[in-house]
Amino acid sequence: MKKFLLLAGAALVLAGEIHARQVTLQGIPIDGEFARVVEKNMVISTKADAASEFTFDDITFWVGEGENRAALVLQWSDEREQGALVWGYRFDGTTNGASMLKAIAAADPRLYISGAASALGLAINGIGYDLDGDGEIGLMNGDTEVEVVDGFANSSATSLTAVDPDDLWNCGFQTSGYWSYWLDDNASIPPTGYASTGASGRTVANNCVDGWCWGDGMSLTWKELIAAPAPKEEPVLPEEFTNGFFIQNEDWFGHAMGSINWVASDGTVYYNIDNKANGDTEVLGNTSQFGQLYGDSYYVTSKQAPRFIIFDAKTMKMQHTFDEIGVGDGRDVLNVDDTKVYVGGQQGIAIYDKAEAQFTGATVEGASGGQIGMMVRVGRYVFAAKQSTGVLVIDPETDKVVETIAETSAQGLTVTRDGQIWCSLPSTSSFMRIDPVTLETKTFSVGKTLLSSWGQCKPDYVCASYDEDAIFFINGSSRHDSAKQLSKFIIDDNGDLVEDTDFSFTMPNDVSGLSFYGSPRINPVTGDLIATVMTYSGERGLHELLYIDPETGSIKNTTRLTSDNGEIYWWFPSLPVFPDNNAPEITLTDITLGKDETVSYNVTDIVSDADNMPALATVEAESGNESVFTVESNGFGFTVMPVSTGSADLHLTVNSNGRIISETVTVTVSETSGAAGIGATGSVAVYPTVATDVLNVTGLSQGNVAIYSTAGTQVIRHDLSTGSTIDLGTLAPGVYIVKVTSADTVTTAKIMKQ
Q1: What angle do helix axes 8-15 and 33-44 make, rounded to 10 degrees?
Q2: Which of 277, 373, 648, 649 is the most buried (most CB within 10 A)?
């Protein structure tokens, strides 16, 4: 510290001169009682402690360019400040104190000053600093707003007040307080010489130091010197939000509306992109927890108005907004197809018409009267969890519930890559598997506590892998703030859930109290499991983004989520949402089959998509000539049935998450019919051994074998790298379709299990 002390001896020596000296404040002559206060400080400035250890090299925030350098020291003498702040200024030649002060205020978005020109130069009456960094800067003169432009307010008023009471702000001139001006010309920080001129009359040359300290005329003390923090450079928003992923945030209720952040592939986090892309205005409603990116649009629901918002997915420009949805507060949102959207709420499911860009006013029949949770579409049906009821099976053609799978503890829904739907049952520590075609169910106990999100009205804590038949879920206790465990279960060849013991996750222990908060999701591009953690203890408001290896459970990387200026902020992340940059592909090649054969395909057999799970795509198949073959669809796939020999086109249309493609393949029906139970294409052969209930595949050592029922349900999946024989012992007697897929061949066959 450097103190300005009025020594008794010095006071006696100068007492005889005190009334003879002209007294100025910032170079402006003053008189009266206040002049004596200022004059005392002039005397004080002649005595000071030893030089400070703070030097030009300690300055981190430099403004301007040039060969010369100067420093600015500001102190508000406020108990909230940790010390006097120091800025650096670069320039060529010479400048003046006012120009330096105004240039620094213009460059630092947290610093602002007020003053007015007089006959003797610019008089500074007020200096402020946005201490909490919230960007709320403004000045009032009574009830009148004072304009602040580039950090400067042109006003001579000495009673200006800051709009934000959290700011450091002092204002006065010849009043009970004033800004004293201190100078040094030899790089000594802080300055100790009282200025006899105003800021505009002060010549600033190389190594000059200017200081401003608020006081009331008593002994002045420079606090510990601190380098003013350079403002965090605001990243320019990407031109398109394609290379990275979104984070849907509840955000801090009572402080801000819902929000969306963007995490670029290089790790850069862009905060509040929904606001910034729309003129720095809040556009989401309160507590925005659900979102879906479909096609070229991003759909978001909120608990409070506006409850439904649609953005352009690439630019985040708002397209439509609705305060009400007709079913209470917003819950999950699901694009049924390219014509309509189901919007879940407290009291059912509303229907949004895309062509008309408005809600129809109707709701899904049979879904009203209770809170809707997660929704998914697989094949023909939409599946929606309803609190204390079960899983609703909805026909999107009629917008009616056609069946209810009764299960009062039903909660979250996810879909594995084989198209099976998995519903979490927290009250019994179980998962229920639902066949999307037959609607048959089977329940599996996992022996772990599953989190329930009904009370928090947010997405569930379960997700599925894109690369293997596996599901991930967060467990621990019934409260999310104690949820520290992440489990992985794989689906074996019999369709049963088995814990993957090779997967082991350990919560980071470098911050106390970390627990999972939002819903985890797999990044379809990188394969990483993305999860958010937060802590309620220690460093309040700490949020981290974890990139988890889905095979081992190890943490590959972390990203700290802060405010724009790097400070702690409570985002309450709810859900990662991934962009859709790639169109799907139809992998089905031309089909040749005997006139007595049929062949079935599920959407998972004929579609690939780099961004999405093929099981969630829908496929339409149409015969170009029904005198050659007909097509029968079960919603999740289709069956080709020969009528007569010949060739005709099979027209396919696939909708994968709003990306729609069409393709035509040729179906040739020949006289030759494969013997029952035997199929062959080239050198690949498929045949069962009846006595031992074994299916044999010859001519291929790498690839996959998928066996389907005639209803199109996959019943067995086998990797040929593990062997060429497949046990059929678990299958009931009947007819099955076998599809063998390798890198360059596709073989289909019909077999009979006796």
Answers
A1: 120
A2: 373
Residues 87/228, Cβ–Cβ less than 8 Å: yes
Strands 84-91 and 95-96, bridge-based pairing: unpaired
SS3 state of residue 604: helix
More confident residue, 42 or 176: 176
Domains 2-227 and 582-670 share a fold: no
- For the domain bounded by 2-227, which CATH number is listed? 2.170.130.30
DSSP code string of 495-517: S-EEE-TT-------SSTTEEE-
Identity of the amino acid at 360: T
Helices (H), 595-682: 603-606
Task: List the chain domain ranges.
Answer: 2-227, 582-670, 674-754
Buried b or exposed e, range 477-504, using 16+ CB within 10 angstroms: eeebbebbbbbbbbbeeebebeebeebe
| DSSP result, 672-684 | --PPTT-EEETTE
Instruction: Tell me the CA distances in angstroms from 494 to 455, 604, 629, one per residue in order.
Output: 35, 18, 33
- Quick count: other Cβ atoms within 10 Å of Cβ 48? 18
pLDDT at 672: 67
Mean pLDDT of 625-643: 93
Q: Render pLDDT for 560-584 as a digit per residue (tens, 0 to 9).
A: 999 887 888 899 999 999 999 999 9
Place of tokens 């497949």: 726
Amino acid at 420: Q
SS (H, E, C) 253-321: CCCCCCEEEEEECCCCEECCHHHHCCCCCCCCCCCCCEEEEECCEEEEECCCCCCEEEEECCCCCEEEE
E strand or H helix at 138, and its extent?
Answer: none
Three-class SS state of 419: coil
Number of Cβ within 10 Å of residue 646's Cβ equals 15
Interatomic CA distance for residues 689 and 692, integer angstroms: 6
- CATH code 1.10.287.40 for 674-754: no
Going by C-beta distance under 8 Å and a sequence separation of 6 or more, which residues neighbour residue 492? 498
Structure-token pair, residue 502: 């090779």
